[in-house]
Amino acid sequence: MNTLNDENTRSQCKNILRHLQSGKTINPLQALDQYGCLRLGARIYDLKKRGHSIDSRMIRAKNGKKYAEYSMRVN
Question: Rounded distance, CA 22 to CA 49, Å?
């Protein structure tokens, strides 16, 4: 199944890519709050599959939980 056929998924990918290309990082809570995206990891996978170079790093929150933060190198 190609998830990029879904209009909502394409819109989320476009918004997340624009966010990353502006030099900002993004994490799952930001993606949910700003773009209504519950599956940031899946959208990052879709963007990488389309050839975008996106870096990730694991962050440990004060409560001990881990989450991914994504970024792009901007020229």
Answer: 20
